[in-house]
Design goal:
By secondary structure, this protein is mainly alpha-helical. Helices cover 63% and strands 11% of the residues. It contains 5 helices and 4 strands; from the N terminus they run αβββαααβα. The chain has helices spanning 11-29, 47-50, 52-63, 68-87, 98-119; strands at residues 32-36, 40-41, 44-45, 89-93. The protein starts with 10 loop residues before the first helix and ends with a helix.
C-alpha cells in the first residue's frame, strides 16, 4: 500500500498529524488579534501617495492596453499597497493561561512532527 508522499505506510500517522497540526494552529490563531496603524511618512498620512503608480498604470492601460509601462506601474502600485498594508499591521497575542498556550503550541508541533514522520520512508 502506498502511503503519504508516495512512501510505504505512514498514512495513519500523516492524517493524525495533519489533524493535530490543524487543530493546534486553529486554536493558536484564535488567540491572536490583528489591527492596523496609520500609514505615515514623516508624521503625514502617506496612503494617497502610494496610489500614484497604481493610478498612472491604470490610466496608461486605458490609453494603450499594450503599454508595458502601464503594466509595470500597475504591478508596482499593487505591490506598494500590499507592502504598506502588511508593514502597518500590529499583531497581539491575547491573554490566556500558560497551560492553554503550551497545549496549542504542543499540538501544533506534535502534529507537524507526525506529518513529517508519516512522509518519511520506513
Amino acid at each position: 500500500m502506498i502511503g503519504a508522499g508516495g512512501t510505504p505506510g505512514g498514512l495513519p500517522q500523516f492524517l493524525i498529524g495533519l489533524g493535530l497540526a490543524a487543530v493546534g494552529a486553529y486554536l493558536l490563531t484564535q488567540q491572536v488579534s490583528v489591527q492596523t496603524g496609520f500609514w505615515t511618512i514623516g508624521g503625514r498620512n502617506a496612503f494617497g501617495l502610494s496610489l500614484i503608480p497604481f493610478i498612472l498604470g491604470i490610466g496608461l492601460l486605458f490609453f494603450n492596453s499594450q503599454s508595458r509601462a502601464g503594466f509595470v506601474l500597475l504591478a508596482l502600485g499593487v505591490l506598494i499597497i500590499a507592502a504598506g498594508i502588511l508593514m502597518n499591521l500590529t499583531i497581539y497575542f491575547e491573554r490566556t493561561s500558560l497551560f492553554n498556550t503550551l497545549m496549542m503550541i504542543g499540538m501544533t508541533a506534535a502534529g507537524v512532527g507526525l506529518v513529517l514522520r508519516g512522509l518519511k520512508a520506513e
